[in-house]
Amino acid sequence: MTAESTTPAAPATNAALYEAARSVIPGGVNSPVRAFGSVGGDPVSMVRAAGPYLTDAEGREYVDLVCSWGPMLLGHNHPAVVDAVHRAVDAGLSFGTSTPDEYRLAELIAGRVPVERVRMVSTGTEATMTAIRLARGATERHLIVKFAGCYHGHSDGLLAAAGSGVATQSLPGSAGVTEAQAAETLVVDYNDRAALEEVFAARGSEIAAVITEAAPCNMGVVTPDPGFNRFLREITARHGALLIWDEVLTGFRASDTGYWGLSGRPEGWTPDLWTFGKVIGGGMPTAAVAGRAAVMDLLAPLGPVYQAGTLSGNPVAMAAGLATLQNATGEVYDTIARRSQQLEELLVGSLTEAGVDHSIQRAGTLFSVAFGTSANGVHDYAEAQAQETFRYAPFFHAMLQHGVYLPPSVFEAWFVSAAHDDAAMDRIAEALPHAARAAAAATA
Ligand code: PLP
Predict the structure, then answer these.
(1) Which of 42, 240, 439, 441 has the most other CB atoms within 10 Å of its CB?
(2) What spacing in Å lies between the alpha carbon of 245 and ligand 1's midpoint?
(3) Where in the chain is the domain with CATH 3.40.640.10?
(4) ω into residue 301 within 30 of 0, thus cis?
(5) What is the Cα–Cα distance from 320 to 379, expressed in whole angstroms?
(6) Which tens digit of pLDDT belongs to each residue from 247-296?
């Protein structure tokens, strides 16, 4: 039997592919939000990507406003990235040793943001999990504070997201997470300084770290209130806890220096630990934990905090990340900022014309839309959940029908790339009025 004959032919339609996938993959997807659970309908299977476009199994082309959930800063299949990956593949898929490119990528990251050490891992989940372990090892404390609505990957302790303003007790956010694990995570409302003061007053000597998204993008985008991030830096330092700055999503995307460039840098402070992912892998599985040498050098083999990975620093992934960051020039960030602004204006114009109450939530070049929120915008998870979420499904499907692929959830940021050109923007402009009218007609 040849290798080819062992591979069954794939069904040809999106619906048939989903049906087939469901028989062998839980829910038919390898990451839950891809299942279209909150917008309904069958997920679309993509088979090709180029520049700002995705092509599905039925040959339909979409302007992509997901960009693989962030990594494709330069657009899909950027020639320099593809070329670097081809060369890396030709040289060998994985060596299980140190390689020159992992050192070069670490240097490139350290050249953009003030970190002294970078450890490569394969996913953002691993990066935040490692940062938490490091913080506990460094402080010899056990509690972690996180904010409701912030997502830091799916490690047990970080799934605890439920909780009141000042959570004295967290609830597991997933079956399979024990109450004991959840109890090690204190959940506080985002942008709520008083709640954080209270938590530190009650349990400050037990708190190893506060982990925060540099700007939350996983309850839709929520802009940190002015000075809120600086307050996090100040209160953690005051109590001897570490500040873990999760830039897995915003890193090297919200600006050339991530969201830190819009927050910590102008305010003159740095976090203790950072996490990166997405853009630093350019579409390949790479992430990193980084920070001050005094903390990072606690990692094995130098220190007592263990962390490892068979494919960490994989040479093909390093090549994709290096080529992406090397080509992420000022011009690229200017283009993304301009296109993001243009997209916001088109969106606001269409929604306003259709009479849909909304607010735009922004963090650098990232933004999302929230419905029924024009009076105050969205400042925390409760407000994000209280919006008119029912308007998003018809909005999403109208965009899809008109050839634009949006995130299949209202609680996600919209991503543009440097490849989004006039033709792509024109297609979005044509689709938006249909989607806005569909949102206007929606009922709860
Ligand atoms: N942290 C943030 C802020 C994220 O947005 C994500 C994923 O979207 C993660 C961590 C987890 O990254 P990964 O999906 O690579 O595990």
Answers:
(1) 439
(2) 12
(3) 79-327
(4) yes
(5) 36
(6) 999 999 999 999 999 999 999 999 999 999 999 999 999 999 999 999 99
b/e per residue 183-207 (b: at least 16 CB within 10 A): bbbbbbbbbbeebbeebbeeebeeb
List 151, 259, 333, 381, catalytic entry = 151
Q: Is 409 near ligand 1, meaning CB less than 6 Å away?
A: no
Read off the pLDDT band of 55 (50, 70, 90): very high
Fold of 79-327: Aspartate Aminotransferase; domain 2 (3.40.640)
Q: What is the pTM of this model?
A: 0.95
Residue 250 Cβ inside 6 Å of ligand 1? The answer reads no
Residues of each domain in the chain carrying CATH 3.90.1150.10: 3-64+329-441
pLDDT at 335: 98
Is residue 226 helix, strand or coil? coil
- The architecture that CATH gives domain 3-64+329-441 is Alpha-Beta Complex (3.90)
SS3 76: strand
**Is residue 278 among the annotated active site residues?**
yes
Cβ(251) to ligand 1 under 6 A?
no
- Please give the residue that has the higher pLDDT: either 164 or 117: 117
